[in-house]
Amino acid sequence: MAKSGVFEGDPTTVVKAVELKKELQRMVRAIVDEDDVNLEALDKAQQMLFALRELKLKKTVSLKLHNHHYDNEMASGTVPEEFKCPLSKELMRDPVIIATGQTYDKPFIQKWLKAGNRTCPLTQQVLSHTILTPNHLIREMIMQWCKNHGIKLPDSVSYMSEEGLTGADRDHFLSLLGKMSLTLSEQKEAAKELRLLTKRMPSFRALFGESVDAIPQLLSPLSQSNCESEVHPDLQEDVITTLLNLSIHDNNKKLVAETPTVIPLLIDALKTGTIETRSNAAATLFTLSALDSNKALIGKSGALKPLIDLLDEGHPLAMKDVASAIFNLCIIHENKVRAVRDGAVRVILKKIMSRLHVDELLSILAMLSTNQKAIEEMGELEAVPCLLSIIRETSCDRNKENCIAILYTICFSDRSKWKVMREEESMYRTISQLAQNGTSRAKRKASGILERLNRAVNLTHTA
């Protein structure tokens, strides 16, 4: 009689292996016989292969189950190492196999993946995908062990993850993503529901981090459009708003920004969407730019110019989101250069002179004042009288501080501006008052200007 190798002496495992092989043969026939690619059959075949591989890898466990020493260990109630999750070090409730063939408890490997990790915790191999395949063999062995020791293990069907999602929730999520490649009406229906779910339930935002294909699937209706007329406004708005909801989830920020189609589609939305879509696209860029690596990526992608153009348009609904995005992006030097090149100084000064969103825009202008070209533009655009008038008018210490900091840089860069400063001080004593009553930074800057003005007066009298 032919030996069954690893499965010899373990009838249950032999039967399991035979069933898996039969199912695998059926899946392979389905894949080969059909003209089109049967994705469902491919996925099932992959699961069968993983399960067979696991049977082979768990040879030692299978043999030990019939070993007297191992029986004694189980009788003592000690959890076998093979039944513990490598991450939690506890008995696995829902064992799943990842791309490297290693088995983990589902909620713990999900948490690992949602944290942005794309390697196997044990082997450190890069994962080719993040599909989690149920390990039925190990689960059956764990259930038998629990039964022998009077331990109740939650059933996998009713088991709920730590995020509060059931298997039905996950199936619904996958169903919605699948609809994003169907008819326009189905795309619109699915996009609207995904928008609502990701707004109300943080756990649904986290689901997008479990598969590298989830975000591309969400964006597929916009990615496949070749011209503006092909993008339905409501569909674009719902998809972009869903992206905004996803980007709020900290563990998603890197994944969202580094998905190749995301930033180009956000830039397109800034230019072509409804005002709500454009505002939400700006808010998404602001949220993503919390990470420095994302700031650089967004800046290189050319997002600053459409943000500045939208700021120039001045729509009340979009102004704060746009200003916040520009401010965050300009924290890094390279983006300051890009913003100045793309006309930020002119647009910001125009809005400030009209007393629109002065608080936010002064903060950006102060940040840009470390750039020499920006300072030159401010001088040419008559920023000095405007900033001095704001110091006189405003009761906001932060605004006064930003104004005097910008004035300090302008005046020490352009000697022709000292005349305006002397006249201001002579008429209103604006700078002296700030040197006495401003914030500590405002006092330093105002005192520096006063010192320079007094020195110039002393030199004139001496001459």
Automatic annotation (TrEMBL):
One function term, GO molecular function aspect: ubiquitin protein ligase activity
CDD domains: RING-Ubox_PUB
U-box domain boundaries: 78-152
Listed Gene3D superfamilies: Leucine-rich Repeat Variant, Zinc/RING finger domain, C3HC4 (zinc finger)
GO annotation terms (biological process): protein ubiquitination
Classification via InterPro entries: ARM-like, ARM-type_fold, Armadillo, RING-Ubox_PUB, Ubox_domain, Znf_RING/FYVE/PHD
Catalytic activity of the protein: S-ubiquitinyl-[E2 ubiquitin-conjugating enzyme]-L-cysteine + [acceptor protein]-L-lysine = [E2 ubiquitin-conjugating enzyme]-L-cysteine + N(6)-ubiquitinyl-[acceptor protein]-L-lysine
Keyword annotations from UniProtKB, A to Z: Repeat, Transferase, Ubl conjugation pathway
EC numbers: 2.3.2.27
UniProt cross-references to Pfam families, sorted A to Z: Arm (PF00514), U-box (PF04564)
Top-level taxon in the UniProt lineage: Eukaryota
Record pathway: Protein modification; protein ubiquitination
PANTHER family registered for this protein in UniProt: U BOX DOMAIN-CONTAINING, U-BOX DOMAIN-CONTAINING PROTEIN 9
The name this protein goes by in its record: RING-type E3 ubiquitin transferase
The gene coding this protein: LOC105170113
